[in-house]
Amino acid sequence: MRLMLLMCLAWFMTLTCGSGDKRVRVRAPRGSKWWSLAKPGEVSNGLRAPVRKLYNNPSLLPLTKRQRRLVTKNPGAVMAVVSGARMAIDECQHQFRKRRWNCPIRFEGHRSSIFGKIIQKGCRETAFVYSITSAAVAYSVGRACSQGTIQTCSCDNRVHSRPSGEDWEWSGCSDNAKFGHKFSRKFVDVLEKGRDFRYMINLHNNEVGRVHVSNSLRRQCKCHGMSGSCTIKTCWMTLPDFRSIGLALKDRFDGASQVLPENSVRNRGRGKRRFNFSPANSLHKKPGRRDLVYFEDSPNFCDNDSSLGFDGTKGRECNHSSLGVDGCDLMCCGRGFHTEHYVVQDRCQCIFEWCCEVKCKMCTFNRTRSTCL
Ligand SMILES: *[C@@H]1O[C@H](CO)[C@@H](O)[C@H](O)[C@H]1NC(C)=O
Ligand SMILES: *[C@@H]1O[C@H](CO)[C@@H](O)[C@H](O)[C@H]1NC(C)=O
Ligand SMILES: *[C@@H]1O[C@H](CO)[C@@H](O)[C@H](O)[C@H]1NC(C)=O
Predict the structure, then answer these.
(1) Which residues lie closer than 8 Å to 249 by C-beta, 6 or more apart?
(2) What DSSP assignment string belongs to 216-272?
(3) Is the Cα torsion angle 219, 220, 225, 229 positive or negative in sign?
(4) Which of 3, 148, 309, 332 is an S-S bond match for 372, by CB 3.0 to 4.6 Å?
(5) What are phi and psi of 103, to 5 degrees?
(6) Which ligand lies nearest to the CA atom of residue 305 in the structure?
C-alpha cells in the first residue's frame, strides 16, 4: 500500500514537474539511463570513490534511486555494471557492423538514450538492445563475483554439490551466473513497470538476454599431475566468452517473433516476466523464453531520420563484391557508391630468424574502399 502511494506520488510529481517542458516526451525511459555509465573517462574514474560516498556520487546521476541503492549495497558492483555496459555496446556494434543499422552510440545529451530513439520503438533492433544490455550486466556481475571484486558475492560453488564424474571432481571457483541473473533483474528491470505493452515486450527481451547467460555456463576442467599426465582432473563452471552470447542473441534477432499488441497479452503470473504473447502469424509457434519478440517492423534505415536519431547509410563503407547486406547495393539502398583505390605499405614475407628475430620486407598493396553516396 505504501509502495503504491509512493509510486503515485512519483508519477504525480513527474507530471507536474514535467508539464510545460515539451522535451519531456523525447526522454529515454528512465530505467535505461544507466547505459550512459559506459561513457569513457570521467564516469568510471569518479566511481572509484570510497563506498560510503557512492550513493551520492555525481557519476551515478543517470541511475534511479533504486539502482543507486542496489549498487551501494553491493560494493564493487557498479564497476561491473560499467564494464557490462561497455561490453554490450562493443558486442552490439560487432554483431551489427555489416548491417545498415550498426548500433550507433551517442554519449552527448542527457535526455535521450545513448542508443538513440530506436529504444522507444518496438522493432527487432530494440529487442536486441534490451537483451544484450541486460545479458551483459548479468554476465559481468556473475564474473566479477568469482573474481572477488564484489563484496556481497563470490564463487557459486553450490553447483559443486552435484555428483562429479568418474574421472574428475569439482574444485575451484565457478562463475556466479545466478547472482548475476538476480542482480541484473533488480538493476535492469527496475523501471520497466506498468502495464504498457511496450514494457512487457522490453521485460521479456531483458529476460531473454539473461536466460542466454545463465544457460551458457559450461564445465571447464584442468589436469593436474606429472607433466602431461592427468592423474587428477578438477572441474568448475565457467561463463563462455561474451562473444558467443552476442552471437546467440544475434541469431535470436534473425529469428525474432513478431507478436500482436495489447489485448492479446496475458501475464502468466508467477514472476512478472512471463507473458503470453500471441504470434502475429498464427501459423508460427508462440515465442518461448529464449525468443526475442517485437511488434513493429523495422524502418529501412536508409536515410537520415531524426525521429530515430539515425544518420542513414551515407558515407558507410560497403563491400562492392558482396551480394549480402554489407554489399554496396543493399547497404547504399540503391543510391550508388563511390570507390577509391589506394596504395598501402605493409610488412610482408616475414621470416623467423634464429634466434629470435622476425624479418619482413615492405610491400605495396593496392586496396579499394567503397562508400555509400
Ligand atoms: C541528419 O539530420 C539532422 C537534422 O535533420 C542534422 O542535424 C544532422 O546533421 C543530419 N545528419 C547527417 C549525417 O546528415
Ligand atoms: C567482400 O565480400 C566478398 C564476397 O562475399 C568476401 O569474399 C570478402 O571477404 C568481403 N570483403 C570484406 C573486406 O569483408
Ligand atoms: C597496383 O595498381 C597499379 C595500377 O593501378 C599497378 O601498376 C600495380 O602493379 C598494382 N600493384 C599491385 C601490387 O597489384
Answers:
(1) 95, 128, 131, 132, 135, 208, 209, 212, 292
(2) T-EEEEEEESSTT--SEEEEEEE---HHHHHHHHHHHHHTPEEB--GGG-EE--SST
(3) positive
(4) 332
(5) 60, 55
(6) 1
Q: pTM for the complete prediction?
A: 0.85
DSSP alpha helices (H): ranges in the chain?
Answer: 2-18, 42-46, 65-73, 77-95, 124-147, 177-188, 197-214, 242-254, 328-331
Q: Is residue 364 within 6 Å of ligand 3 at its C-beta?
A: yes
Residue 78 and residue 60 in contact, taking contact as beta carbons nearer than 8 Å? yes
Helix (H, G, I), strand (E, B) or coil at 75: coil
Q: How far is the CA of 106 from the centre of ligand 1 (A)?
A: 14
Q: Which residue has the cell 561463463?
A: 239
Domains annotated on the chain, with CATH: 13-312 (no CATH), 314-373 (3.30.2460.20)
To test the pocket of ligand 3, the residue of 344, 345, 366, 367 to mutate (highest count of ligand atoms within 8 Å of its CB) is: 366
With H, G, I as helix, E, B as strand and everything else as coil, classify residue 5. Answer: helix
What are the 10-residue block averages of pLDDT along the chain, 373 residues in total? 40 33 46 83 70 78 90 93 96 97 84 84 95 98 97 92 89 96 92 70 94 96 84 94 98 96 60 78 92 95 88 95 95 96 93 88 94 96
Phi, psi of 64 (to 5 degrees): -80, 170
Residue type, 102: N
How many Å lie between the centroid of ligand 2 and the Cα of residue 94? 16
Nearest CA to ligand 3 atom 3: 366
